[in-house]
Amino acid sequence: MPLQPDNSTNDEEIRKKRLLGESILVLFNKLLHTAKIHEETNALCVSVCRQFKKEAEPLLREYGELSIEAKHSRLFIQGEKLLHRPETSAVTFSLLELFETLGVYGFSINTKLLAAEEKELYRFAHAVNEALSASDPKKELLTVMEAGRFSWIQTLFETQLEGENDGKSNKNEAIRVYSYAYNSIIEVGKQLAEERSFGTRKAMRSLQSLVDIIREDVSIVLGLSTIKDFDDYTYTHSVNVSILAMSLGNAIGLSRVSLMLLGMCALFHDLGKIDVNVDILNKPGKLTETEFKHIQKHSLNSVRRIIHLDAFRDLISRLILPPFEHHLKYDLSGYPSVKWSRPISLFGRIIAICDVYDALTAPRVYRPVAISPDRALGIMMENSGKDFDPTLLKWFVNMVGVYPVGTLLKIDTGEIALVAKGNSQGDARRPCALLLKPDGSGGFVSGKTVELQDKDPSTGKFMRNIVSSHHAAELGIQPAQYLYPRIAPDTSFIPLIS
Question: Taking the model in full, what pTM does it have?
Fold first, then answer.
């Protein structure tokens, strides 16, 4: 049974949101059909464009984006499945047929729609209709969208996520999206440090793609969360926490929209560290009491920085609480000191778990040798109920596995291996592992992938047994370099290849 957020919406609110979603889809379909037979100055066309903007505005102000998607012969609005109803069956069929003909799986609308003139909406609808009549609708639509005429809407093509479905395309997309998220958080930090405003669109777009990959195969992105960059720790840490948080949120059954909000909160949870002196952040020795108090201010400073992001107030208001809470601890004994007795929010509890896990498994200036992922889980379990929500922590451990992806294993055959994927079907203590072979110059190259649960058919005994587990950094290994070979020649993401 999926966990539900603390402040779950009541039935009436859910019903209203579903009806609003239906209304938006009906108007989107009506816009496309009206543009087929009328000019842009026609009163009906203008009215439909205005209605569409009006209906979309509440969702855009609350979430920063509006998605319309088709998956498995069903329509989704904001990641929520449109219910089968006789009143909307014709619209459903029409839009599903439209998406199939165009070779797209949906559209993502951003807040620029609110400032767009009605004629821009009409011209988009007209361009879609023109593409439908072309010999290659998908190519025609792609050409139109790449021209940048419609900045308020993005077309989501199937190849962006599904590709050949051979695993490689998804891994390549995951690497690209990680790089995009990494660069977006760096850009946000630098702009805010210079007291310049910065929006959330770029970050939101990367999180949309990450959510889709997570919902399809979470193991793909869990491997990326092993990326550790000693020099740019805060930024890789922010992306890793975002990935882990969205993965945990997906495991407990959060909706797509909730996952994106959770991911955004996690991505910005340490934004306040741009206000901390670099010498303190990089100090190799023990912090003084004054220095530690300075560090402790970063949670509140994150809130201050988030408030100054260039985004709608409705969205900002949903982003500020979890970053403030992520060091409070489950029993409220952490920092900053608060006088309330209510539990911290669901998002705050999720981010707290993911923040500590990634921090424990990363080499730091004050702790050059990182803790192995399985040992980090053990340490966290010792503080279950005090530092962490015990139920969520169990979900997290079940999600990452006894030996999380990227854990370095020594095998009784003398081989070493990296955990590549958990074992969801059999013994969780025997994951799928990638063997590493010495390259003769002090490094390693990838060998074959093996299942540690495989047995020798002649003896019935396991072919390989784990002797010990370690952090990959002990051998100077960056797991993602081996788990994610550079499929695309233009992939250039420093932490991956340094």
Answer: 0.71
Domain range list for the chain: 12-160, 168-400, 408-470
Other Cβ atoms less than 10 A from the Cβ of 100: the count is 14
Q: Decide: helix, strand or coil at residue 410.
A: strand
* Beta-strand relationship, 408-411 and 153-157: unpaired
- Reply yes or no on domain 168-400 having CATH 1.10.3210.10: yes
Structure tokens given for 85: 């109803």
Residues in the chain, how many?
498
How does DSSP assign 343-367, residue by residue? PPPHHHHHHHHHHHHHHHTS-BTTB
Q: Which DSSP helix (H) or strand (E) runs through 82? A: none
What is the per-residue pLDDT across 45-78, written as a single tens digit (0 to 9) for each?
999 999 999 999 988 888 788 888 887 677 888 8
Structure tokens at 421: 């994927």
List of residues 6+ apart from 168 with CB closer than 8 A: 487
Chain position carrying tokens 């396991």: 462
Please check whether residue 329 is in contact with residue 386, taking contact to mean a CB–CB distance below 8 angstroms.
yes
Residue 407, Cβ neighbours under 10 Å: how many? 28
Peptide linkage before 336 cis (omega within 30 of 0): yes
Nearest to 226 by CA among 212, 215, 239, 216: 239
Two tokens at 482?
Answer: 């081996």
- Terminal-to-terminal C-alpha distance of the chain: 42
